[in-house]
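Minutes, structural biology subgroup

Action item carried over from last meeting: produce the structure token record for Transcriptional regulator NanR (Jannaschia rubra). EB confirmed the sequence was re-checked against the source entry. Recorded below for completeness.
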Amino acid sequence: MNATHDIRLLGDKAQHALWTALRSGQLREGQFLSMSQLVELLDCPIAAIRDAVKQGSAWGLLTTLPKRGVQVMEARPETIRECLDFRMALDQEGARRRIAEGAVEGLADLRQRHAAIRDAARTGGAGDLPPQAITVDLSLHDYLSEGLGNSLLTGAYAANRMRIAIIQNSRPFLQDRIVSAMEEHLVVIDALDRRDAGAAAEAIRVHFEQTLRWWGVP
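Output recorded by EB:
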């Protein structure tokens, strides 16, 4: 019983370490590593690493190369477009469901946080503004995904969020982009507040198209 529990704990530790390395950019898009390098980097036993890699491969975050190692997902234009399109579709549905169910509490806090980051960016902001902006940016996407109310959809959303994190780490959140991104999100928040599902879906589409443009994807 204790051995089984220990194996599970090691598995959880390895998966958490892998997710953290991907989200933080410690593992970069397109990077190739042998299994021994991954074991050293994540500081976990190889059996636990193999299980974590298997989950990462299932989510499209990694590609396993037999007898060679693993490669982190590449941020190709078609991959970026598909990941952002996937997010847009689920964001739009999350907005529709929140509005249909009247579950639009918490918008005042979201609006205040977005406006504060936008205003800080307009005035030059602090050196650590981009990381703060990413956190605030994700807060609206989390809000919309939570509106789906379906564990299968939210699980798929979480996997795609990891893919977008890998892409985002390869394309730094430029301070010039912060103002427009926050303003695009504020339009979504205002539409949610008005319970206007059509306007919310359109605002989310505009945000999708602008993100593609800023990331240089036609």
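Discussion: The chain is about 75% helix and 5% strand.
Next step: EB to file the record with the rest of the batch.
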